[in-house]
Write a structure and sequence with these properties.
single chain, alpha/beta, Transcription Regulator spoIIAA, 7-stranded parallel beta sheet, 14 helices, 21% strand
């Protein structure tokens, strides 16, 4: 499982005008406000929920707007995530004490009883059933009664509903439910159909979910317990959604999942997904959100180095630690030397490649010597950035019971050192491209006319002048002129 920060591959920004806000807040429609914590997979699933609500006649309003229904799609990767979830729930309750608050996703899967005790919560739905949230909302009989819907973890039978993207949901007659509903989770290596993942009709870049769950069982990771064992989306089903996304105007598709490199249904693999997307007229870019270093098909290097191929030169390859001792304790499936070889092979094969990674500090028994091994490795590798996470002991994982827990102050100090190094690495990476002309997919535009977007190798570019035309969803070249913070200022050249 890759631990992506909330800033990795951010969702497309959207500005709401006064007229738009008035439209979505039409009194005749019940308003729903959706909130998301965690990775891009969570963000994409929230997009599906938004579309499902729209199909059911709800008005989806911005996350800061007052609503009759609040939905929080949760993350539980760290203790901090859990605390943030609880903080948001209480904030939403204060915003509208009469509203229904539905808490869904990973945290809801792991600790539903604790969530149910928080004032204001009416509905708690685990990972597998959250896409049926509109069905369960209809079953809430009182704000004083909390409905918990939580799949069992270690069973073998499960079916997932498919949520259409553009047509109304067919009427479904639900069986009578008790106040706690338990269903079985998909077994390892099973196949199912997933719902779609688009986030907005105005999006330029969106996710295509091809896989969920994980079989790797790293010692620190709670995700296999929150999302179940690895399972894969039907190939024809993802083809259907991809075609729909391109028809809606999407220019870049991000392949998303918990462990996308393991994708396999029949004879189809991740390479087949990429091959199919590459054939879609109108699609400009294909990006892989994150992939475990031991699961990268070598053919992807060739695709990324081909200027005519739509797969962009970008890899996010989680490291976690540069110490073999710690990697073994983490139950990672590679050594520091093997990871190093993979990084250099990618870097030397793909021109202008952007490589990012995840690093964990303060894993149990991580000594200063082992931390220095991580620091040394990160310094010498050709990485563009890395996300740094302090170890968080998650109940139920092997690491939870490990002795010699690293003090919080030490984890903080080590994290600060690595974040500083990451900032320096990103600056060095950006400096390599100053003066070049590169195509940018323009994504967001502020009311003052400022517009920004990303290059193929994930450099955020902001025009250094106001531009009167709306360039969103256009792929246009720009000269990279000046480095400012974590972005580059660009300029269209006349003539």
């Amino acid at each position: 499982m890759s631990l992506l920060s909330e800033t990795a591959l951010p969702p497309d920004s959207e500005t709401f005008t006064t007229d738009e806000l008035n439209e979505v807040q039409e009194p005749a429609k019940k308003r729903v406000s959706l909130h998301t914590l965690g990775c891009r997979l969570n963000q994409s699933e929230t997009g599906v929920l938004a579309r499902s609500f729209e199909q059911q006649g709800y008005a989806v309003v911005p996350d800061y707007a007052r609503a009759e229904v609040y939905v929080l799609n949760t993350c539980t990767v760290t203790e901090h995530s859990d605390a943030k979830n609880r903080q948001i729930i209480r904030k939403l309750h204060r915003q509208n004490p009469e509203a229904i608050i539905a808490v869904v996703g990973c945290y809801a899967q792991i600790d539903p009883e604790a969530i149910a005790k928080i004032e204001g919560v009416s509905l708690v739905i685990g990972s597998e059933e959250k896409m049926r949230i509109t069905d369960y909302l209809a079953q809430i009989d009182s704000q004083n009664t909390v409905l918990i819907v939580r799949p069992k973890i270690n069973k073998t039978t499960f079916t997932a509903p498919v949520i259409p993207h553009s047509s109304a949901l067919s009427a479904q007659k639900l069986r009578k439910q008790t106040k706690t509903i338990e269903r079985d989770v998909v077994p390892a290596n099973s196949t199912l159909q997933f719902s779609g993942t688009t986030t907005s009709h105005q999006s330029t870049r969106t996710s295509l979910k091809i896989q969920d769950g994980c079989d790797f069982m790293c010692a620190f990771c709670i995700i296999p317990f929150a999302r179940g064992r690895s399972r894969y989306r039907e190939f024809s089903n993802l083809q259907e959604e991809a075609r729909m996304l391109v028809q809606e105007g999407i220019r870049e598709i991000v392949i998303t999942g918990v462990n996308v490199g393991t994708y396999k249904t029949g004879k189809r693999t991740l390479v087949d997904v990429v091959d199919f997307l590459n054939t879609l007229p109108g699609l400009s870019r294909i990006r892989i959100s994150s992939i475990e270093p031991t699961t990268v098909p070598e053919l992807l290097f060739q695709y990324m180095s081909d200027a005519q191929h739509k797969l962009v030169p970008f890899f996010h390859l989680p490291l976690q630690s540069g110490s073999d001792i710690i990697l073994q304790k983490m139950k990672r499936r590679y050594s520091a030397a093997e990871y190093t070889d993979e990084i250099w092979r990618a870097f030397e094969s793909v021109p202008d490649l952007c490589i990012g990674t995840d690093v964990m500090v303060g894993f149990p028994e991580e000594s200063e010597t082992e931390f220095k091994s991580t620091l040394k490795l990160l310094k010498k590798l050709p990485l563009a950035y890395f996300h740094v996470f302090p170890f968080s002991a998650r109940n139920g994982t092997p690491a939870f019971k490990m002795k010699e827990q690293v003090p919080p102050t030490v984890k903080q100090q080590r994290g600060e050192k690595l974040r500083l190094l990451s900032t320096k690495k990103r600056r060095v990476f950006h400096q390599k491209f100053l003066g070049q002309s590169r195509e940018v997919l323009w994504e967001s535009m502020k009311p003052d006319g400022t517009i920004s977007g990303y290059t193929d190798n994930y450099i955020r570019v902001v025009l250094n002048e106001l531009y009167n035309s709306d360039l969103r969803n256009q792929l246009l070249p720009v000269r990279l002129k000046e480095l400012k913070g974590q972005t580059i200022l660009g300029k269209f050249e006349s003539g």
